Structures are given as structure tokens and as C-alpha cells.
Predict the structure of FHA domain-containing protein.
Amino acid sequence: MNQIQAVIMVTKGSETALVARLEGSPLLIGREMPADLIIDNQFVSRRHTLITPGPDGYLISDAGSKNGTTVNNTAVGATPVPLANGDLIRIANGEVEMRYQVSSATATIRSSYSPTPTVTTSGNLNVDLQSRTVTVGGVTLSPPLVGRQFSLLACLYAAGGRACGWEELHRAGWPDRDLGMVGRNEVVQAIHEVRKRLTSVGCTAEISSVRGFGYRLDA
């Protein structure tokens, strides 16, 4: 069996964009070591959620946490259940949200614990999620994308060509603000600034608008 490539992207509950690559080994999510994906949030248990490889993809189970794990608003217990592309994972009573995303065959994503030095998207765009740097054609973007601009780009990249909706973009760029506190115009303006920076340095990947839904990163 060829194990599918997939990622877990934290979209709420972390001050920085976190993406973990699933490479056929178990992934433990928790507040501190020995977790593979560490989320510094007081409501996350030391050992919170476990993702394991299965015959047709990946399975998720709660690792004995205090505040629980849900997938698409359905509680998950100690018995592993399968994950599907795009599933919304919430832990710690919704304090932390994550997306399970199956990667395209050409995507290589760096996790917070992977030894791979860089994250490469299609075209000439490279994103390093650990150092939060962006390179275009081998040249590091300077001044760098920071704050929500980087987080929005990371969100679009991790989607692997899938369109990201307004809520998902909001969670990535404004994790500390409620949904009703961020207008679409604010998201549009932030995306515009990211697009302008990438275009100005000859980036071949394009951020495309998806009418009535959100945005997508295209090769």
C-alpha cells in the first residue's frame, strides 16, 4: 500500500502557523513533549490527540485528553476513526482548530518537527514554516512577510490547491478575533497585499479569487 501524503494545519489556538506533515508514522498532538505537534495552549493536554496511519489513509483518536477531540463536531474517543480530506478537527472544547488536508502528489510540506529544511510549493515559490520565511526563485523575500500576511500565505499553500473559504482564512490570519469581528474587506485587503508582494518579485504561483467563497493558490 502507498501511504497518502497529508498534513494537519492548525488554524486556531496557536499564535503561529503550525503545519505537520503526515509521513506514514503516528502523530501525537499535545501541549509539550513527547508530542510531535506541540500546541502551546493551556487547554490542550500533554497527550491530547493521536493520528495514526490506516489501510486507506489516516485515523484519529483521543489520547485521553481532559477537554476532548471532535471531527466535524462529532466527538472522537479512544477508538480510532478515519479522517477525510478537509475534515475540521477541534480539540480542547474548540479552543484549537485544525484541518486535515490530503496533499497533491507534488507538494512537500515541512512540519514543526520534520528534518526537511524547506517547504516547496509549485512554481518558484518556497515557504519555510519553521523560520517563517518566503523565497521566490531562490531569493528570500525582503522585507519578509510577517504576521497575518505570512499566516494567510501558509494557509493557502497548505491547502494544496484547494480553495480556502472566508472562515478558514479568518482563523489563519486573525486567530485572536471572533468571526464577526473580521469583515471580508479586511481579508480581501490582506490577501491583496500578499499578492502584490509576490507579484512584484516575479512569483509564478498566483492567488486566485474564488467567487463567493474565498481564495486559492494556483501554480
